[in-house]
Every structure is written in C-alpha cells, then in structure tokens.
Amino acid sequence: MSTLDVARAELGLAVLYLNKAEARDKICRAIQYGSKYLSNREPGTAQNVDKSTSLARKVFRLFKFVNDLHALISPTSPGTPLPLVLLGKSKNALLSTFLFLDQIVWLSRTGIYKPWLSQFEFSLVGEAHSMKVEKILCKDKSEYQEILVFESSTYGKVLVLDVIVQLTEKDECVYQEMITYLPLCSIQSPKNQNCNFHKSWVP
C-alpha cells in the first residue's frame, strides 16, 4: 500500500467522524443569516446573535477542510468526463483552502493565534512593516473607507484606514509636534495661541 493510499484511508475515517457536525452547522447557518437580515447591520440583539452564531459555525467547521482535501487527492470514477473532473477538483481545492483560512480567522478572533498586520511600502521595493495584533478593538466600514483599531504589542493602540496605518499611541507625538511646531515658529511670541482652522482646509 502506497503512502497516498494510507493517507486516503486515514482521511476517509476522519471524514466519517467530521460529518456529524453537518446538521448543527446548517442550523447555525439558518440562524446566522436570519439574524443578519433582521439586524440590517444595526447594533442590537439580532447583530449580536449574528456575530456569535458566526463564531459558533467556525467551531463546527473545525478541520472540515480535511473533507475536501480528501476528495481532492482521491481518484475520480472511471469514465468521468475531463471537464467535470477539473471542475470537481477545482471546487475541492478552493473549498479546502477557504475552510483552512477560516480556521485561522477563528483562532485570531479567540486570541489563540495573534496575527500580524503587515503594510507593504510600494515606494520602497522589498520592504514591509509589521505589527503584532494583540486585540482588535474596532473593525468597521464607513461610506468612504475600512476602519480598523487594534491593540499592538509594542505601539499601543493603532488606527488603520484601508489597510494603511495612520497613527499609533507610541509615535502620534511625531505627527502632532510637526504640525504644531512649524506654525508656532512663525509667531514671535507663541505663548498663548488659538489654532482656528478654516473649513476649506479640512479634506
């Protein structure tokens, strides 16, 4: 028996065991999408049910990617047309990848796995800046941009807009001092000055 046959047999046993969670996942899916429709993205009980059920479904789908991985490496029935074989294998590959990444999302939300936020500098080829995410404080989407606020291990609270870091607790003084000191240098006695911004200056 080859190594591939042994892997198929072991994955087949795992599939039989993991299939028992299918019914519970379907019930949670109905509750999740029903509460999502009722909440209309507004804070409240329905939205809380939606979020908690979404996390519960991720628990029920633990290691479910094994099912599609098993189907991906298993031989197809003799006589199956090649286009159907390719479609089936593509489906198995995509689903197994999605479900595996779904496990990573669940681990990060529970705090078991702490992800890193990486910002690639397009102006500096070959460089990237990363921060370890300890806890996500806010994740939302406005009419104009995606908003993320998280607690990092070294920079404190971090504000991110459209996956671009705007400021952090550790270095926010750099921005404030630069926009404050330069105008103050143009004043003869900057002891007590009020900063009045014209509304046309605000983007």
UniProtKB/TrEMBL annotation:
Stretches that traverse the bilayer: none
Pfam families assigned to the protein according to its UniProt record, in alphabetical order: PEX11, Spermine_synt_N
Subcellular location: Peroxisome membrane
Keywords, sorted A to Z: Membrane, Peroxisome, Peroxisome biogenesis, Polyamine biosynthesis, Transferase
Residue ranges occupied by any PABS domain in the UniProt entry: 104-203
Keyword Transmembrane helix: no
GO biological process terms held by the UniProt record: peroxisome fission; polyamine biosynthetic process; regulation of peroxisome size
Subunit comment: Homooligomer. Interacts with ARC5 and FIS1B on peroxisomes.
Function of the molecule: Involved in peroxisomal proliferation. Promotes peroxisomal duplication, aggregation or elongation without fission.
Annotated protein name in UniProt: PABS domain-containing protein
Naturally occurring in which organism (per UniProt): Camellia sinensis var. sinensis (China tea)
Taxon lineage: Eukaryota, Viridiplantae, Streptophyta, Embryophyta, Tracheophyta
